[in-house]
Amino acid sequence: MACAAGGVREALEGSIPLSSSDSIESLTRFSATRLGVEMYDADMGKNRNEWTELSAQAMENILEAASIEGVPVRVADAGEEPPASEESSPSAPSTIPPPSPRVHHHHVARVAPLPSEPSESSEGQDPGGKDPNSAQNRLIYLSYETLLSTYVYGLALPLAFGVSSPRYLIATPLLAAPAAFGIHLWLSRDMDFSEANLKGTLYMSSLSEYAATALPLAFASNFRDGYRGAAVLGAVAYPLGIWYGYHLGDSYRSNPDELDTKFQFALGYAFFGFITPTLYYEHPGDHSDAVLRLGLAQSVGMGVIGNFVADYYQLNQNVAPGVPVGIATHVILGALAGIEVASIADASRFQPWLGAGLFGASLGLSEGVVFFHYSNQDNFDRARFSLLGMVGGAMMGTGLQLLLFDPKEDAHEQKIAWSSFIVGGAYLGYWTTYLLTSGMTEAVSSHAENHGSSEALTAPKWAFNPVPMPSPIRSRGEWVSGWQIPGFSMHF
């Protein structure tokens, strides 16, 4: 059961019926003035729902109190209405004074962004269930997509088909930009642009245009033909990306932060895929064309992998303490598999070994995130013993190779033998230990299942950030802007 939400409770008194046994579980914002409340009745032992009409200022005060106290707030989907069977009598809009801030030292659930104070012209209108920030989100959408459309249709296509006159290259973007703005405005005039819809369209339109540009350049025989194909393919893929991105946003309206995770994974994987081909060759300067082509193709493939791996990343959920250690172990196993490939390829310099190891580590990370999405109850002892089992297996493989070492083999055969025994022993030791410790698990419940229990609220949260991202940090008791360092992090 959630802890008593004092400030929210005080603000709601007089708007909905409340008894001493009721505790506020969550809030649902149906519009700028309509609020749904889910409560847990300790006497009855069950939940019930109420809703009420409030003034815009009262709504803002209640949402501010919910943000302070960690009461979850959900933005209702477009057209969603409170259940008719659970309505309470709507009271007249109230003017409730702002609640006094209360500090609670526990993990705060994600809260929907507070709506900006409505203008006089919109305050009396029925929003019809649309997101209150729809107009602002649409403006951001129009600004970004107008710029991208101007490149796709006003610059890339003329350049691809041999237009070289500066007069034409200046005129076509000037003609394309207003036309693109008008078309985007007309097509989006009746759309509800929630935060998730905005993120989805920006994300997928950018991804589709990059993929449509990179793939033809990677596989065409020369740059001119590749860029011509990229321009034509981009002109087709770009509107499809916008269409798919908007509908993708509909699937994440209740939690748009998951789209941020997909973007971070796709960007991190794509960047990694683009730079690693420089390590595949012993003399990359002699293969610059192949390195560029392979980097472009690999960045698209890795970006797609990151996009789907993000669906298995457990965002803002409680995970057992053995999960991050288990993922790290799978990363090491993937790196060892890459080293085995490098030995089979008879790499003689450091760069190919490093490149193969890093590429294998990225695949191990992907596999580990998916694997521990389903095996998310491993405790720390199981993860630790499995890691030690991997080390022990590698030691046994090294010992066997010392006993079976044949000095008559050539250098390549000896290289393969050493890596195969060590890597094979590590894999065998890990999976043997992992199966033997199958009983070392602990049940992990989500916040919703625990009704906001203190154990769930204070459990550490693990996160993976592949690229530096802006993030608020606490310094000397105050929140300031900072940057996340790439890697794994744990939040309390």
Average pLDDT number = 79
Low-confidence regions: 1-5, 85-128, 446-462
N- to C-terminal separation? Answer: 20 Å
- Order of strands across the widest beta sheet? 3-2-1-4
Secondary-structure-derived class: alpha+beta
**Major sheet description:** 4 strands, mixed
Principal-axes geometry comes out as flat
Helix content: 55-70%
Number of strands: 8
Relative strand content: 5-15%
- Rg value: 28 Å
Discrete helix count: 15
Secondary-structure element order, as H and E? HEEEHEHHHHHHHHHHHHHEEEE
Give structural notes.
By secondary structure, the chain is of the alpha+beta class. Among the domains are: 6-123, no CATH class; 317-459, no CATH class. It is 56% helix and 10% strand. It has helices spanning 6-12, 56-69, 120-123, 134-160, 166-187, 195-219, 223-250, 257-275, 288-309, 322-344, 350-374, 380-404, 411-436, 447-450, 454-458, and strands at 22-29, 34-41, 46-53, 73-75, 461-465, 469-475, 478-484, 487-491. The protein has a four-stranded mixed sheet, covered by helices on one side. The chain has a two-stranded antiparallel sheet with strand order 5-8. The two termini are 20 Å apart.
